[in-house]
């Protein structure tokens, strides 16, 4: 459409320009036709010439009374006529042939002579001039006839030219009429298209209004989704941070932040499945929704972590609210006709000067309080105090030191003897890791091992300890068994078995001399997977010991189903074995069961001779404790490099 309009506009411009040119040409032709009155001018000049001739002859006749002035008037007329012969188309016509030029020249000569001598002419001179003029009458008449003929020829040519121009003009006008008709049709079509477009625009506008409303509704929905947890419908972490920062900026009263962590939720999730876990989270959130105490906001931070924001309550009041909330959550839950009981830990941070602390700092303080609440043995509610920050910073510093210690390999091993109860012969050694901190001194395993587990360093640390123990044991001449403790998290490493194989290959220690000690907690997360790994380890030739038996979830079924080679009875069973017959009976029961199942039983924590004698009376085979030897460094075990050494065991370790 646009291209066609452009073509039409160009055609209009060209036609207009052409019409303007045609009109100009027609004007020139008409002007040219008008110029062909030259024939009349020549004939009039010839007539004036003859009148002059007749008047001149009459003037000089004796009996005629013609004034000289009249002759002069006629002469002046003819002179002016002759001057016009020198201009325009007359000049062109007269100079077209030599004959015409000669005639005009003769006429001009006669007139010039007459004009110069008119007042002084005598009879003879007049006769001579009249003779000359008479001779020119014929040529002038002929010249007039030629002029008339030339005029008619030119008129014919111009008429033909006018007819051609008229025809062209008619064609152009017709073209313009057709073009205008096309343009009108196009304009009508364009108007129709515009009306259609207008209708479509109106429909589109209606659709846009509907889409805008839908978009607004979607935005509201997205705002809700963006700021609320999809499972519990509680506000999420994003809205929580916004509300916390707003409450601190308002500074209208004491701001209290409660961080809530569900106790035993992971057990429910792992034992009953994630569906039950989701149902439990939903019911917990429902109780939070229905909590009648006025709170600013409850939100789910993620997993089983929640937060509560209180404004205007004191620290003591926030603790009371936390206890009420904890009691609500502690009430039994009914999930698919199954009653579930859980508890919660709550960390509280309270500030009466909201504008003096930022949201991040307040959250960290509440988190520190929550951590202490989780580790508490009684009420799992803790209000943050300043000393907790110091302890937290100290813990962070210890974590950093532990990370550096693992990177630098700064751990050493002590070894404690495992002896035959009857002969007191050395039957094996347990490797015990120690960390000698440069400023804190000796740090016990019950501190740095859990810390390494939390930090994700236990796999690397355990690999270092295993490598050191196997390297030193391989250098002993006496082929004693070396026992190394494992963290449950080490067994979860996908390549743990291969890493043990690598250590044995690297150190050259025979697998039969290595025993790996694990606790019953390894069976809590993935029982079948752990059994498979233990079987793979035993297939290498090494043995597996169950450490601290009787302190956790021990049962006789574990002794039957789990591939253990050794049972290490916890020292708590030995503490009053010499005085309490029931304790002795319980130890005897474990020894008898282990013996019947072909498992070695090692009794730990033997510190007195009375305990040792009681164990001998029961029939125990192996013991371990301070009575026989305290843990010592590898330098104290030089006697193990002598294959034929037979000194008394206790004396060897004492020296």
Q: Can I get a quick summary?
A:
Helix content is 60%, strand content 15%.
Strand order across the biggest sheet? 8-9-11-12-13-14-15-16
Low-confidence stretches: none
Q: In whole angstroms, how far apart are the ends?
A: 111 Å
Taken from the alpha-carbon principal axes, the silhouette is: rod-shaped
Number of helices: 21
Helical percent range? 55-70%
Whole-angstrom Rg: 65 Å
Strand content: 5-15%
Tell how many strands the DSSP assignment holds: 17
Descriptive overview:
- This protein has 655 residues and is an alpha/beta fold.
- 60% of the residues lie in helices and 15% in strands.
- It has 21 helices and 17 strands.
- The chain has helices at residues 2-35, 38-59, 68-84, 88-94, 98-117, 123-227, 237-250, 265-272, 274-289, 315-330, 359-375, 386-408, 445-455, 458-474, 488-491, 496-507, 527-539, 556-561, 581-596, 609-618, 649-654, and strands at residues 255-263, 297-302, 305-311, 333-335, 338-340, 343-351, 381-383, 411-420, 426-437, 441-443, 481-485, 514-518, 543-549, 566-569, 600-604, 622-624, 632-633.
- An eight-stranded mixed β-barrel has the order 8-9-11-12-13-14-15-16, surrounded by four helices. The chain has a five-stranded mixed sheet with strand order 2-3-1-6-7, with helices on both faces. Strands 4-5 form a two-stranded antiparallel sheet.
- Helix 2 (38-59) runs antiparallel to helix 3, helix 2 (38-59) packs antiparallel against helix 6 and helix 14 (458-474) packs parallel to helix 16.
- It starts with a helix and ends with a helix.
């Amino acid at each position: 459409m646009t291209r066609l309009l452009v073509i039409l506009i160009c055609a209009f411009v060209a036609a207009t320009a052409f019409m303007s040119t045609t009109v100009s040409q027609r004007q020139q032709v008409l002007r040219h036709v008008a110029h062909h009155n030259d024939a009349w001018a020549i004939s009039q000049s010839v007539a004036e010439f003859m009148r002059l001739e007749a008047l001149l002859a009459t003037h000089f006749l004796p009996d005629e009374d013609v004034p000289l002035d009249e002759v002069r008037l006629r002469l002046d007329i003819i002179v002016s006529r002759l001057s016009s012969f020198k201009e325009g188309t007359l000049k062109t016509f007269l100079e077209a042939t030599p004959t015409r030029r000669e005639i005009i020249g003769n006429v001009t000569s006669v007139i010039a002579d007459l004009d110069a001598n008119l007042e002084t002419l005598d009879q003879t001179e007049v006769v001579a001039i009249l003779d000359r003029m008479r001779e020119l009458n014929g040529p002038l008449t002929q010249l007039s006839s030629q002029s008339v003929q030339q005029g008619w020829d030119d008129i014919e040519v111009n008429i033909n030219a006018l007819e051609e121009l008229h025809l062209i003009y008619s064609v152009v006008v017709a073209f313009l009429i057709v073009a205008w008709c096309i343009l009108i049709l196009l304009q009508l079509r364009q108007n129709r298209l515009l009306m259609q477009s207008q209708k479509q625009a109106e429909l589109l506008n209606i659709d846009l209004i509907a889409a805008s409303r839908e978009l607004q509704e979607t935005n509201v929905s997205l705002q809700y989704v963006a700021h609320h947890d999809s499972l519990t419908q509680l506000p999420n972490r994003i809205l929580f941070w916004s509300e916390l920062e707003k409450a601190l900026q308002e500074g209208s009263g004491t701001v209290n932040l409660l961080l809530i962590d569900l106790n035993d939720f992971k057990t429910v999730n792992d034992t009953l499945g994630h569906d039950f876990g989701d149902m439990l989270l939903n019911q917990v959130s429902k109780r939070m929704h229905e909590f009648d105490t006025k709170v600013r906001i409850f939100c789910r931070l993620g997993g089983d972590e929640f937060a509560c924001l209180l404004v205007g309550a004191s620290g003591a009041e926030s603790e009371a609210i936390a206890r009420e909330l904890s009691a609500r959550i502690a009430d039994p839950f009914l999930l698919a006709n199954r009653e579930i009981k859980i508890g919660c830990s709550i960390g509280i941070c309270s500030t009466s000067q909201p504008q003096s602390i930022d949201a991040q700092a307040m959250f960290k303080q509440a988190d520190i309080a929550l951590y202490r609440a989780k580790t508490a043995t009684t009420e799992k509610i803790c209000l943050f105090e300043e000393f907790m920050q110091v302890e937290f910073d100290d813990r962070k510093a210890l974590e950093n030191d532990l990370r550096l210690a693992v990177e630098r390999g700064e751990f050493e091993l002590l070894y404690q003897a495992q002896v035959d109860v009857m002969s007191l012969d050395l039957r094996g050694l347990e490797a015990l890791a120690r960390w000698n901190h440069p400023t804190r001194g000796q740090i016990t395993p019950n501190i740095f091992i859990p810390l390494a587990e939390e930090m994700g360093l236990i796999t690397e640390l355990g690999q270092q300890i295993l490598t050191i123990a196997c390297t030193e044991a391989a250098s002993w001449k006496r082929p004693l068994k070396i026992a190394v403790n494992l963290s449950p998290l080490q067994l979860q490493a996908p390549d743990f078995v291969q890493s043990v194989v690598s250590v044995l290959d690297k150190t050259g220690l025979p697998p039969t001399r290595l025993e790996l000690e694990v606790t019953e907690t390894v069976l809590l997360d993935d029982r079948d997977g752990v059994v498979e790994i233990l079987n793979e380890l035993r297939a290498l030739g090494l043995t597996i010991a169950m450490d601290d038996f009787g302190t956790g979830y021990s049962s006789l079924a574990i002794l039957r189903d789990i591939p253990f080679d050794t049972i290490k009875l916890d020292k708590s069973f030995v503490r009053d074995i010499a005085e309490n017959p029931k304790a002795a009976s319980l130890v005897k029961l474990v020894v008898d069961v282990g013996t019947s199942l072909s498992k070695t039983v090692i009794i730990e924590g033997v510190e007195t001779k009375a305990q040792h004698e009681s164990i001998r009376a029961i029939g125990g085979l192996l013991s371990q404790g301070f009575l026989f030897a305290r843990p010592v460094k590898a330098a104290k075990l030089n006697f193990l490099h002598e294959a034929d050494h037979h000194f008394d065991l206790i004396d060897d370790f004492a020296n």
